[in-house]
Amino acid sequence: MAVALGPGEGWVGHKAPYAHSRRVGVNTFQIILIYVLGGMPHILPKFYLFITFSSVLDVIAFTASTWAIMTSPVSLISPLSSFNPVFTTIFAMLTLKEIPTPMKTLGIFIVVIGVYFLNISDAKKGVFMPFKKLFSNRGVQLFFLANIIWSITPIFQKKAIFQKQDCYPQT
After folding, report:
1. Where are the alpha helices (DSSP H) in the chain?
2. Residues 6+ apart with CB under 8 A from 45
3. What is the pTM assigned to this prediction?
4. How far is CA 1 from the centre of its chain?
5. Cα(13)–Cα(29) distance, integer angstroms
6. What is the pLDDT along the chain (171 residues), one digit of tens a residue?
7. Is residue 6 packed enough to be buried (19+ CB in 10 Å), middle (13-18) or exposed (0-12)?
8. How are beta strands 42-43 and 164-165 bridged, if at all?
9. Long-range contacts, stretch 85-90, CB < 8 angstroms, 24+ apart
10. Residue 74 zone, left/alpha/beta (φ > 0; ψ -120 to 50; rest)
11. What sign for the dihedral angle of Cα 46, 51, 56, 60?
12. Other Cβ atoms within 10 Å of 10 Cβ, number
């Protein structure tokens, strides 16, 4: 019986000898790239605070989305992930004072219309019935919550990016 082994596999209790050298090469490239791009920035304390908030929110969102996928059909909830840029745009407007372009605003409108069409057959019972039926599903609620949370994390990440000082004085 032939067994196909991936890179670094097949050595009993050890990685193949070239696996370590490949990792060293990647790390060396990263270090060289850092210095070519201007050196390591000085990270301010708020950087760690923002990254921690972002990480905690990511874990909560991942947990909610996992529960959603376990309890609802993926075909029902996966289109809702297109709401993520919509929420991110709204939160960026409120927290970062970033105003969306007319094209982004049109995109948001198209996403909302698209979600409406997921249950368009229920529109006979009322104009908002497709939304009501969609959001009455527990999995949809959890996935929607996950996407709201995932739309907040880029705000913290962007704020973290600004919490640095360059090593070298700018000329």
Report:
1. 17-36, 45-71, 74-77, 84-95, 102-116, 129-135, 138-161
2. 163
3. 0.65
4. 42
5. 28
6. 444 545 555 545 555 555 544 555 667 777 787 778 777 778 888 999 999 999 999 999 999 999 999 998 887 787 788 788 888 888 999 998 989 899 988 988 888 788 767 667 766 777 667 667 677 788 888 998 999 999 999 999 999 988 876 554 454
7. exposed
8. antiparallel
9. 85/111, 85/151, 86/111, 86/112, 86/151, 87/147, 87/148, 87/151, 87/152, 88/151, 88/154, 88/155, 90/151
10. alpha
11. positive
12. 12
Maximum alpha-carbon separation in the chain: 67
Distance CA 49, CA 45 (A): 7
